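Module 6 notes. Inverse folding takes a fixed backbone as the condition and produces residue identities as the prediction. Think of it as a translation problem where the source language is geometry and the target language is the twenty amino acids. Below is one complete input and output pair. Work through it position by position during the lab.
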């Protein structure tokens, strides 16, 4: 694979001076404008990547250094987190809202996603607070509150068209991952199993917890089963528990992520939707 890079800048309303400044900082000799909202800077020097990406983000642009000649179809597996990545909500927070305890649960969720709390312990603490809720609360959240994030349908459609397998791996719950898998034609889905007895949540989980290590292991196992190379795998996530799988993938994409996740990922989408991936890898 070529080590030459193209800096791709996604700018919905590009300021010509901003583009000139970015190209100068990146030392990019060739600029292409394949669309009104995208600029490809061929020959950009990756040595100043952090400065260049920071400048783009300050202007409200998403940007990434892409290997020359790399296309979306070169990936054969897309691995995605669910909550706040593929979908617009944190499901556990919305379930808690139905019980009237969303602020308490959401605060724990936020800290866990920033990596300030042990994920497994924080999950068990939050699930315990849901004890007694009827199973119908899960259906209510799925039907009334859960939506795909902007660009998700376009990304999944492109994956189906190109024959890219899709793996949804979540620290959330199987109730939601299983329905998303069925509704949107995903190939694989893994998450935590809420224990339900007599139609009510017990406040406990069944089986192994899907934490950061498990997410990485599921990526590796699926990659191996499909006989893929690391560079054929892209992973997308937003929380600290996604970091190991993002780093294990050939390309790790942070989507509207916590700062430490964005800093560690190969690509950080801070402004656009998930369809930004389609623009980066045309």
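Target side of the pair, the amino acids:
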């Amino acid at each position: 694979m070529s080590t030459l890079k193209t800096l791709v800048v996604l700018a919905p309303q590009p300021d010509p001076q901003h583009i000139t400044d970015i190209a100068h900082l990146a030392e990019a000799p060739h600029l292409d404008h394949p669309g009104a909202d995208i600029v490809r800077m061929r020959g950009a020097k990756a040595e100043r990547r952090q400065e260049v990406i920071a400048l783009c983000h300050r202007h409200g642009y998403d940007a990434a250094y892409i290997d020359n000649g790399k296309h979306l179809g070169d990936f054969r597996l897309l691995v995605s987190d669910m909550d706040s990545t593929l979908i617009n909500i944190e499901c556990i927070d919305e379930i808690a809202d139905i019980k009237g305890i969303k602020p308490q649960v959401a605060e724990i969720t936020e800290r866990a996603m920033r990596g300030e709390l042990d994920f497994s312990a924080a999950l068990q603490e939050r699930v315990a607070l849901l004890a007694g809720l009827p199973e119908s609360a899960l259906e209510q959240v799925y039907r009334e509150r859960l939506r795909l994030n902007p660009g998700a349908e376009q990304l999944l459609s492109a994956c189906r068209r190109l024959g890219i397998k899709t793996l949804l791996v979540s620290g959330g719950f199987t109730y939601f991952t299983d329905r998303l898998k069925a509704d949107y034609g995903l190939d694989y889905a893994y998450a935590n199993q809420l224990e339900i007895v007599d139609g009510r949540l017990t406040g406990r989980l069944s089986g192994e917890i899907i934490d950061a290590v498990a997410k990485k292991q599921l990526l590796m196992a699926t990659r191996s089963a499909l006989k893929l190379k690391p560079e054929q795998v892209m992973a997308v996530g937003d929380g600290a528990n996604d970091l190991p799988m993002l780093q294990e993938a050939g390309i790790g994409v942070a989507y509207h992520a916590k700062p430490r996740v964005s800093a560690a990922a190969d690509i950080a989408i801070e402004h656009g939707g998930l369809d930004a991936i389609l623009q980066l890898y045309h």
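Reference fact for the lab report: The two ends are 17 Å apart (CA to CA).
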